[in-house]
């Protein structure tokens, strides 16, 4: 049995940030991670040539102050995402090149439809109270309908609908019919609106850490040292009058409080004793993750740049639904990141690996030419089958969930506190939001102990 001040469950950025801040505050900490690695829904692989592949979350953008602060703390620089040249969309087999956010080179009617829908979404986002989106004036109305329902009633162009569904529903790695409109508005608003969420330059994909996300989480892990325990999936959390007991297959940790920083659906696999309050328990059941396959296709050089292409492309329904230039700061080798999400990811996930590779490379060749058919490396990460992620980069709320159970997202349950990017009111869904949530949970537990010591009344019970 290990006896510490605090236990943290989960070694993604939320759990690492919580444990790091607690240790820096002079507390003893045990961090239990189910995998044999850290990083959670980020995963940086360093190649033999010194380049790196971010198999999971990779980008940072303006306003993401907490991830920037963590990078500054550990001396990690950033570099801007490559955006020179034109982006591309493929609709009904026809290619359209464009610059900016809206592809005006396609049908003017469809482009106007896209622009108007994004403008309306931005307007609705401004009415969302970030700390409690379920209290918005139209919360009940917006939580009764899905993103698909709203798109059907606000796009008159078939092409506009297909592109908006791909761009927006892709953020939740699910079909548009699976996601509540209120949740979409909340998540977008947490980042500043649809322009940020869907944008590259000055948007959510504006820059990357040099060395990938691993350049941030590795030095965090070094500072935590032997506080980290890998390959320890937590099975049971028991609260009593004095402390909490956290059990994995091999460890028993006794602590004053525990911070659970794993995806919501994964938290439902832990046995809590006594049982969690009904609303928190139901929240775990009702906020799933979606499906996403992220593939790094590596070439000797980024040949698309010579063709005046940025590498950014979208093709609804394609096995290579979205692409983006994923080269390191040196620009060599050439790396195209292919992102396939939602129903398409589930469909191609049923193919065997050679068939999936062939379908992806064929789609890339149709977009970027025959050079795309012959990569020097092909690295696929299917997050849909990750045991301890449960799917995509962000858990989402289907219709009716936020208004019924959203209030339980951050509320502690006795000695159990919650972290994870889904619980962050700012930058929900990004690494920055994960760090914010971990730091918030660490402050909660320290504040509680300070109140107990001083004889004050806790506000976190």
UniProtKB/TrEMBL annotation:
Domain of life: Bacteria
Keyword Oxidoreductase set for record: yes
Amine oxidase domain sequence ranges: 13-445
SUPFAM superfamilies: FAD-linked reductases, C-terminal domain (SSF54373), FAD/NAD(P)-binding domain (SSF51905)
Cross-referenced Pfam families: Amino_oxidase
Cofactor(s) of this protein: FAD
Keywords carried by this UniProt record: Oxidoreductase
Binding-site residues, FAD: 33-34, 234, 422
MF terms in GO: oxidoreductase activity
Family: Belongs to the flavin monoamine oxidase family.
Listed name of the protein: FAD-dependent oxidoreductase
Organism: Nocardia bovistercoris
Lineage, uppermost ranks: Bacteria, Bacillati, Actinomycetota, Actinomycetes, Mycobacteriales
């Amino acid at each position: 049995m290990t006896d510490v001040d605090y236990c943290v469950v989960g070694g993604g950025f939320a759990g690492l940030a919580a444990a790091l801040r607690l240790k820096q505050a002079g507390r003893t900490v045990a961090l239990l991670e189910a995998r044999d690695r850290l990083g959670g829904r980020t995963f940086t692989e360093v190649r033999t040539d010194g380049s790196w592949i971010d198999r999971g979350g990779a980008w940072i953008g303006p306003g993401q102050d907490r991830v920037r602060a963590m990078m500054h703390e550990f001396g990690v620089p950033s570099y801007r995402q490559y955006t020179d040249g034109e982006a591309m969309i493929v609709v009904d087999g026809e290619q359209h090149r464009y610059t900016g956010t809206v592809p005006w080179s396609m049908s003017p009617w469809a482009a106007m439809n896209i622009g108007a829908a994004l403008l309306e979404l931005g307007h609705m986002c401004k009415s969302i109270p970030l700390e409690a989106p379920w209290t918005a004036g139209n919360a009940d109305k917006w939580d009764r309908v899905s993103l698909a329902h709203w798109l059907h009633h606000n796009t008159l162009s078939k092409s506009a609908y297909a592109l908006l569904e791909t761009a927006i529903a892709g953020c939740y790695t699910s079909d548009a019919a699976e996601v509540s409109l209120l949740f979409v508005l909340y998540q977008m608003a947490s980042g500043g609106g649809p322009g940020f969420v869907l944008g590259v330059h000055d948007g959510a994909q504006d820059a990357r850490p040099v060395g990938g996300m691993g350049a941030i989480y590795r030095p965090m892990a070094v500072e935590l040292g032997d506080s980290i325990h890998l390959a320890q999936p937590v099975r049971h959390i028991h609260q009593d009058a004095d402390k909490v007991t956290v059990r994995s297959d091999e460890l028993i940790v006794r602590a004053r409080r525990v911070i659970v920083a794993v995806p919501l659906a994964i938290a439902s696999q832990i046995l809590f004793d006594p049982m969690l309050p009904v609303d928190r328990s139901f929240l775990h059941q009702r906020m799933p993750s979606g499906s996403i396959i992220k593939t790094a296709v590596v070439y000797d050089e980024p040949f698309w740049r010579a063709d005046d292409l940025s590498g950014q492309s979208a093709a609804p329904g394609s096995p290579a639904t979205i692409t983006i230039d994923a080269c390191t700061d040196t620009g060599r080798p050439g790396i195209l990141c292919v992102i396939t999400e939602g129903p398409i990811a589930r469909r191609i996930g049923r193919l065997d690996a050679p068939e999936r590779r062939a379908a992806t490379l064929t789609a890339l060749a149709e977009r970027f030419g025959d050079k795309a058919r012959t990569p020097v490396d092909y690295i696929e990460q299917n997050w849909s089958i990750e045991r301890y992620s449960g799917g995509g980069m962000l858990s989402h709320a289907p219709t009716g969930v936020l208004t019924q159970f959203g209030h339980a997202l951050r509320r502690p349950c006795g000695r159990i506190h919650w972290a994870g990017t889904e619980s962050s009111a700012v930058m929900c869904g990004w690494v920055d939001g994960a760090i914010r949530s971990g730091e918030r949970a660490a402050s909660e537990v320290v504040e509680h102990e300070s109140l107990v010591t001083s004889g004050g009344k806790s506000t976190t019970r």
